[in-house]
Design a protein that fits this description.
globular; Rossmann fold
């Protein structure tokens, strides 16, 4: 099973590590290599920029936590080559279209997100767009 996780999944993990729930189930499944994580550089870049540039996150997530997660993700994930050229407009929020494009190019089975602008699409080109809770249920 090939999966692209949205940045919001990683941020949720950093904000509440070890607290159980669907995010922890997903991260445990990732560490156990129960699915293949697709990881474009843009997702890592967005993760870092979001944490560092939003004070409410920067106050709760330190750079060491972020660095450890980035290292783990880079070691476990399958890299996805950068997209050359324009990314087509697909969703309600144009800034999310890169996730859909990478999911399709990486032949993902699932795009996991908490973003309602993506979830409303439900499925694009064979990629199911699901919540973390729905994906965690699939892992059980």
């Amino acid at each position: 099973m090939r999966v692209l996780l949205d940045t919001n999944v990683f941020i949720s993990h950093l904000l509440s590590p070890g607290r159980g729930g669907s995010i922890q189930a997903i991260m445990e499944a990732l560490l156990a290599e129960r699915f293949t994580l697709l990881l474009p550089d843009e997702v890592l870049d967005e993760l870092t920029e979001t944490v560092m540039n939003k004070p409410h996150l920067a106050n709760k997530i330190n750079s060491q936590q972020l660095g450890v997660l980035r290292t783990i993700l880079s070691e476990l994930a399958e890299s996805v080559a950068p997209i050359e050229g324009a990314i087509p407009a697909i969703g309600r929020d144009r800034k999310d279209d890169y996730l859909i494009a990478y999911a399709v190019i990486g032949e993902a089975d699932y795009l996991v997100t908490g973003d309602k602008d993506l979830l409303v699409l439900e499925q694009i080109a064979g990629v199911a767009i699901v919540t973390p809770a729905d994906f965690a249920d699939l892992l059980t």
